[in-house]
Amino acid sequence: MTTATLETTKTGFSQDTFNQYVMNTYGRFPVAIEKGEGCKLWDTEDKEYLDFVAGIATCTLGHAHPALVEAVTKQIKKLHHISNLYYIPEQGELAKWIVDHSCADKVFFCNSGAEANEAAIKLVRKYAHTVLEFLEQPVILTAKSSFHGRTLATITATGQPKYQKNFEPLVPGFEYVPYNDITAIEEAITDIDEGDRRVAAIMIEPLQGEGGVRPGELEYFLRLRKICDDTGILLVFDEVQTGVGRTGKMWGYENLGIEPDIITSAKGLAGGIPIGAMMCKASCDVFEPGNHASTFGGNPFACASALAVLQTIEKDNLLQNVQARGEQLRTRLRAISQKYSDIFIDVRGWGLINGMEINNNAELTSIEVVKKAMENGLLLAPAGPKVIRFVPPLIVSAEEIDQGSDILEKTVSQLI
Ligand SMILES: *Cc1c(COP(=O)(O)O)cnc(C)c1O
């Protein structure tokens, strides 16, 4: 990569003007990012950052990747949007790629993670009413500390009261269990079963992302699969953050040795171009024309972008890079964690989704580390108040992992 040659970035950007017009829904860091290349970003003051956030596990190929640039350029000149009233060749091609590279048989396209989960919730409910023949009240079990999105149904699915507060009444038909706890889920299924009210699905992340980068435990997930096989309950994996190579496998479920019945994907699927997908096994594909739809869902532009991302992952052997760079990163993080063993208590993750947990007794918060690292030129994201999250683009190099780790080490030394 050539050195940063930025001609004009003094754009006169004003945070005050921004805040005057944009609704105040995000706690934003006080920088405006203007340009990117690979794993590097530049703000409006020309300050350079190493990007270990990747738009929150979204910019799979980093920024301005030639394959994505070429695909979007070609597609926008050809045809960018057409209604699902018609066949869309790119949508069919993308669905085939996904089916050929996953345990799913069918795909529905939408535009975001929350929407993919909404589609899964609707599919579960229709399956419960028509196949399981529950008369009235199918229940979906989700995990505490989970995250499934910001629509009404998905904040209800999200097992964290802070996302639900002041938005009641919530959507009925959800119950929560602690993550990775076999006894709790067995008890919940027994407790809920009562006449018309029964568990129809378990909706869960193979590794909890927002909830603190917590990997699923093998034994727990084997048991979930067994429970679902024995009872007809559907197993839904929210892979919005873990899918598309992020964990070192194409899909997060491959780390757990089981196959879910329904999978949702979004974030990294088109490398930052908005897209969502809900995939399922043929056995639970109960949707018929009129049941579900999306104006933008699966349009030629989004699908061509996703195809470019997926083909690049394959062609450039990115899964191998994710595994190697993930190992390298965790080794460095563990060394830092051991050096400051009164501050850090855990380093965990799969592939390039990793978390470093701060001791509850330590004064330090994840936000403080993120802010100081940003000053030092490294972008990180919190995953809760005590976990620092590392989700760089899947193209990240060995040098960049070392550089990021060096900056983190310096940052920690400055904070304590
Ligand atoms: C980000 C995320 C979502 C929500 O995705 P949006 O595109 O923001 O709607 C849902 N589930 C998980 C696991 C996520 O990480």
TrEMBL record:
Report residues binding pyridoxal 5'-phosphate: G113, A114, F147, D238, E239, V240, Q241, T295
Cofactor(s) recorded for this entry are: pyridoxal 5'-phosphate
Q: What is its EC number?
A: 2.6.1.11
GO MF, any single term:
pyridoxal phosphate binding
Per the record, the GO terms for biological process are:
L-arginine biosynthetic process
Please give the residue positions where the record annotates the modification N6-(pyridoxal phosphate)lysine.
K267
Q: Which enzyme type, at the first EC level?
A: transferase
Recite the other comments.
May also have succinyldiaminopimelate aminotransferase activity, thus carrying out the corresponding step in lysine biosynthesis.
Name of this chain's protein? Acetylornithine aminotransferase
